[in-house]
Amino acid sequence: MKNANSGFDLMPYSKIHMIGIGGIGMSAIAELLLSSGKKISGSDINSSEITNKLIKKGIDVYIGHSAEHIKEMDLVIYTSAVHPDNPEFAKARELNIPLMDRAEALGLLMKNYKERIAVSGAHGKTTTTSMISMIFEASGVNPTILVGGMIEEINGNVKVGKSDYMITEACEYKENFLKFHPTMEIILNVDEDHLDYFKDLKHIIHAFVKFTQCLPKKGTIIANFDDYNVRIACSSSDKNILSYGINSDCDYKAVNIVYTDNGSPSFEILKNGKPYGRFELSIPGKHNIYNALAAITASDACGIKISTIQKRLKSFQNPKRRFEIKHKQNGITIIDDYAHHPSEIKATLEAAGRYPYRKIWGIFQPHTFSRTKTLLSDFASSFGGADRLVITDIYAAREDDLGQVHSSELTKLVKEEGVDVKYISSFEDVALHVANLAEPGDLILTMGAGDVYRIGDLVAKKLEIKK
């Protein structure tokens, strides 16, 4: 089997097959490769809006994995979730076709751009990447964009630009971001997550230390200095660091924060202690101040005018599944959010708490057994912002259920925290329960990285029937 390495080049390979092409990251790479004239095919377990979009663009997409799909390929790219026993992976190895994981493929594509902005952190990557991308678009820079969510303005999660800039997310899972080649790194936060790979928080921080070492000598780090773990990760770096925050002394500091009736903040920024400008957001939550601070710092460092930054941030709307208002039915608002980590849940509920409401209904679908088991006590104490909560079954994602943890166990612990919580397995039963009890003025918030958003749609249909 031929293995990819740091000297591997994508240019000679005209026929590329992608295992797991329906993933948000893989599909973006597929479109980028397609735009460069490659012949792309791929496979995934299920069909989706993403796979349908790829098919319309001329990519051969197979639903289900089979060795028969590997025919006269020059290269096979695979996701982190693919194991060596995958029939397509095994067939490529048997035929001695070069294999490359998704992160290395993206890292090599990044080398085609002079300026490469990589947005990292446990939380907020998609929103911050989207903010930066839209600011750059508004400035006329025309960057290439790869983001882990759907942005309405670019009709998807990828856009092939015509400038020297690439803007992308950089996930720390399995230390994949160490295969990237950024010239600017943004570190939003460092938190305990992906503990099916990392041993502990110390291991995670060390991965971010190594990430800072990926920069060239003239590279820049944009760092949230309100986050202690970020400061630790950056402490040994000899690169140029631009810091931002609300509480700490930093280069870009948000002060005089004010919230509107729907929870959207405005704030002033002090740059190196001097007034820089006032900024308004149309999306709620304190966590989005931090996301905006990262975007403002990066944009200013790249020479974008403050007036462009201010105007574009004010009109910025969240990507899909990031505090997305899905339905307004019978006086009830249904919002969906990707929050699947205790820190994200707290931030999302804090944002919801600033939104006009009578009661907040939380509907939570835990994501992966390993995360739920390892962070069980943290999850239990993260739902204080909900008036009523329903927890449904764990979304397995890339994992098998080994019987080590169950949503009913989490429900018991949350109840001990004083939250009105109920475990319901079936999506249909969750929707029926919530629709029967919710009243005008209530806010229903679905949370999770799986398919929990479907429950919000089911609730809306049942509320329509009740009308």
Q: What's the quick description here?
A:
By secondary structure, this protein is an alpha/beta fold.
Descriptive overview:
With 467 residues, the protein is an alpha/beta fold. It folds into three domains: 15-102, Rossmann fold, CATH 3.40.50.720; 113-315, 3-Layer(aba) Sandwich (UDP-N-acetylmuramoyl-L-alanine:D-glutamate ligase); 324-466, Alpha-Beta Complex (Protein-Tyrosine Phosphatase, Chain A), CATH 3.90.190.20. The protein has 15 helices and 21 strands. It has helices at residues 24-35, 49-56, 87-94, 102-110, 125-139, 201-212, 228-234, 287-301, 306-315, 342-353, 369-374, 376-380, 407-416, 427-437, 453-466, and strands at 15-19, 39-44, 60-63, 75-78, 99-101, 115-120, 144-151, 156-159, 165-169, 184-187, 220-224, 240-245, 252-259, 265-271, 274-280, 324-329, 332-337, 360-364, 388-391, 420-423, 443-447. The protein has a ten-stranded mixed sheet, with helices on both faces. The chain has a six-stranded mixed sheet with strand order 16-17-21-18-19-20, sandwiched between helices. Strand 7 and strand 8 form a beta hairpin. Helix 6 (201-212) packs across helix 7 (228-234) and helix 14 packs across helix 15. The longest helix has 15 residues, at 125-139. The chain is globular, with a radius of gyration of 22 Å. The model is unreliable at 1-8 (pLDDT under 50).
